[in-house]
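U., I forgot to send this yesterday:
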Amino acid sequence: MTSVQTNSAPVKRTRASVLKDKVKIRLALDSAGPEIAAVLKENDIEIPGADWSKCFPSWLIATVDEEVIGVIQVMPGKPTGWLEFLFTKKSAPYKLRVIAFRKLLEQGAGTLKMAGCSYVLGTVEPGNKAFMDILAKYQAINVGSVNLMAWRIPRIQ
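Result:
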């Protein structure tokens, strides 16, 4: 019998890897609706009269120590799926926001791929060069310009 010895020194973790591990991505339950609305509101997105008590299974959230610091809406379809409302809390530390942003984008795309989507579509605010630069790294292309419109669906009695 041969014995194998290893000199396993402890792995030195970088600050970046520690921060990356702090950001957790998970499916939002309905109870996270008000927190999603708060992140959107902090980013000047308000949808008057929206019922945030029902957000499952359409949203992913990024948390640090159970605090929601980022959100994204994931809408599968075939052949295209949508990723919308990718926002982070402006009050969260910058590095954690960047990590949450990227993790949400990648997990959202992975979720769409698992649902059978072959393309991701999403709107980007005009003039948001930083986001466009990030998307360019993922080989995203501009397929047109849009106005994001909202109207309330009347309750059916």
